[in-house]
């Protein structure tokens, strides 16, 4: 399987501190990959580096063999889409206007709006159940509605690779499942490569073809959920004592934390 997006010896950070140090990985084409790890381990930093938001101090990121820092911005945006964590919309912009921004990389020098642009925006609104919000101001939406609108903008971009940093943030469990089902549909119908940071390990294991566990700025383990989500990994990466059992719906691994109060004494104990 080809690997269109790769990091080679990647070192990035903020200020004097290096968050990722000499990290290398390859992301398979046409699959869903979930990046997991404890807080401040470098998950979001890795996603930002893969999308060119953070320049490397050493190493490089390759997209189909091309260094992403050498690609023209418009060409990169046609091939790779990003939904960052907590994006901020301009004031006074409607949902339709924001989602339409996803089409800018595909428009020519004169920015003419085409039937293909309209179809992409309409489909993105429908897929995220935000059509009824089209004329609303983004600033007036709830957190969950706003998150779905940002996902719609990313879908309207229609790239072969989609990077998402916590796409289920602000969503209740029902909408979390809807968004992850949507991304799975997108992957299966269009073979879109989806790379996302997720905090919920059970949802990551259920929806991802591949897990990447990050610890202290390095790849601790990478592979199918059945190989990666283990009790040893949970202890090493999260410092968490847990049991791993088969998910009764999918058969994939499911994590159950033990905790200090996990045992309920029986009557008479």
Give a short summary of the structure.
The chain is an alpha/beta fold. It has helices at residues 43-50, 73-79, 95-100, 115-127, 143-156, 173-190, 201-207, 225-228, 231-238; strands at residues 5-14, 17-27, 32-37, 58-63, 66-67, 80-83, 161-165, 193-197, 210-215, 218-223, 242-246, 253-257. It has a six-stranded mixed sheet, with helices on both faces.
Features:
269 residues, alpha/beta, six-stranded mixed sheet, four-stranded antiparallel sheet, 9 helices
Description:
It contains 9 helices and 12 strands. The strands form 3 sheets. A 6-stranded mixed beta sheet has the order 6-7-8-3-9-10, with helices on both faces. It starts with a strand and ends in a 12-residue tail after the last strand. The chain has 269 residues and is of the alpha/beta class. Helix 6 links the parallel strand 7 and strand 8. The radius of gyration is 20 Å and the shape is globular. The model has no long low-confidence stretch (mean pLDDT 91).
């Amino acid at each position: 399987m080809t690997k269109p997006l790769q990091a080679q010896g990647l070192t990035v950070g903020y200020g004097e501190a290096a968050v990722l140090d000499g990290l290398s990985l390859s992301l398979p084409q046409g699959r869903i990959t979930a990046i997991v790890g404890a807080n401040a381990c470098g998950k979001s930093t890795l996603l930002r580096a893969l999308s060119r938001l953070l320049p490397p101090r050493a190493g490089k990121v390759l997209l189909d063999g091309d260094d992403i820092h050498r690609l023209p911005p418009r060409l990169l945006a046609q091939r790779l889409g990003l939904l960052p964590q907590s994006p901020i919309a301009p004031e006074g912009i409607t949902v339709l206007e924001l989602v339409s921004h996803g089409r800018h990389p595909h428009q020519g020098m004169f920015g003419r709006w085409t039937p293909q642009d309209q179809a992409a925006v309409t489909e993105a609104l429908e897929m995220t159940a935000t059509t009824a919000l089209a004329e609303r101001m983004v600033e007036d939406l709830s957190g969950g509605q706003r998150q779905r609108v940002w996902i719609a903008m990313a879908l309207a971009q229609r790239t072969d690779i989609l990077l998402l940093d916590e796409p289920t943030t602000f969503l209740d469990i029902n909408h979390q499942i809807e968004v992850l089902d949507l991304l799975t549909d997108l992957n299966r119908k269009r073979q879109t490569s989806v790379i996302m940071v997720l905090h919920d390990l059970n949802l990551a294991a259920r929806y991802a073809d591949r897990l990447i566990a990050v610890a202290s700025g390095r790849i601790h383990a990478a592979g199918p959920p059945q190989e990666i989500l283990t009790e040893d990994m949970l202890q090493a990466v999260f410092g968490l004592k847990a049991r791993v059992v088969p998910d009764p719906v999918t058969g994939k691994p499911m994590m159950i934390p033990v905790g200090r109060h996990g045992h309920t004494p029986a009557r008479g104990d």
